[in-house]
Request: fold
Amino acid sequence: MESSVLDVIYLVTTLALFALVGLIAKGVEKLGPPARGAASREAPGGEERR
Reply:
């Protein structure tokens, strides 16, 4: 019985850590410069990139 309680505590702690890392990542992402859009499909000379 005691081991199942410890398993639940471990699972909840692991999920909480993942959520915390996700929140920190979102905060750090907002601190950085805005993301650039997708690269153009045309090369600078007007030719298609391959």
In short: The radius of gyration is 22 Å. The chain is about 60% helix and 0% strand. Helices lie at 2-31. The chain has a mean pLDDT of 83.
